[in-house]
Amino acid sequence: MSDSRITFLGPISGRGAEPRQGTRQGLTSRVPWPFLVVVVLPTLVTAIYYLVFATPRYVSEARFIVRAASQEQPSALGVALQGVGLSASATDSFAVHEYIRSRDALAALEPKIDVARMLAPAGVDVLSRHPRPWEGETKESLYKGLQRFVTVGYETSTGISTLRVETFRAGDSQKLAAALLDSGEALVNKLNERSSASAVIDAERTKLEAETRLRDIQSRLTAFRNREGMVDPTLSATENSALIGELLAGIATLEAERSQLAAQAPNSPQLPILDGRLAAFRRQLAEERAKIAGGAGSLATKFSEYETLAAERTLAERAMAAASTALDTARLDARRQKLYLERIVSPSVADKATEPNRFRAILMVLISTLLIYGIGWLVWAGLREHRQL
């Protein structure tokens, strides 16, 4: 009986490697290379950047409101209009927002704080700081770079604005937010001064025009009085009317006397005398009536010109009074502040970095790449089906 001996322990040659090769072939067949390029690789790079290299940022937040001194509580319609951004307070707030994001605000900040140093301290990753590798170190580049670190929002239901500033140090965020808020408050004060000065200048110009107009009419009225030799044609007409009334009364008396005398003594020598007096009264009456109306030099013509000048003088006096009142009101308003920027929450100093939100950023990249891959796959499937048809 022969002895058998085992000389090798292990799997039979050629059989152990087949399952591993089959596993790799199955994995590559289940995960196509476009998915790896479009979805896996960008998500992996993003995850490595945010989890390993991204520098944390500290957020300083401030809340403020811009309102007018005479601003009243809005009605139901006003609240509805505020919802679509049509209120006056929203317009004033947006003006401050635009200034905070403007180049003028950056120019006002630079003499006070070193904005460029705050956005690029030592040790910050190249993709978070300013300037990034593809950005220059110009003023325009600094202005655009600052937009990444400053956010201003507006709550339509409350009218409260929120200013958020992100930098790589908590103190820098608080300092930059406070400086921007000071610039916004300075803008509101400047708008107040400009508005008040403009209102006072307009009121002074209006009063000067009213004074000139009134002075011109007074000169024309004085010239009329000197030319016509009367102060008021209305008063002259009244005096003439009284004289005409006396003449008419005298004529009536003389006619009555003559009628009585002619009835009692038709050949009386007093009759020619009475006739002479009647004729004189009637001539005088005709002259006085001609002075009031009937000729080019009558009081009616002068009265029309005088009434026109008097009406112009009345209007000029009213305009002068209104201009004086408007000027006094404008000067009083100039002493009062019309717009206010009230700080509800002062810029805070964060004790913990809250930006960037790493997991949200990675998730956003994953979702975005999945959508791109899905759309691309649908397009490719459609083209392939079209070719088969």
From TrEMBL:
It comes from the Bacteria. Residues 1-25 are annotated as: Disordered. The chain crosses the membrane at residues 33-53, 361-383. The keyword Transmembrane helix applies. Keywords: Coiled coil, Membrane, Transmembrane, Transmembrane helix. Residues 200-227 form a coiled coil. This is Chain-length determining protein. It comes from Brevundimonas pondensis.
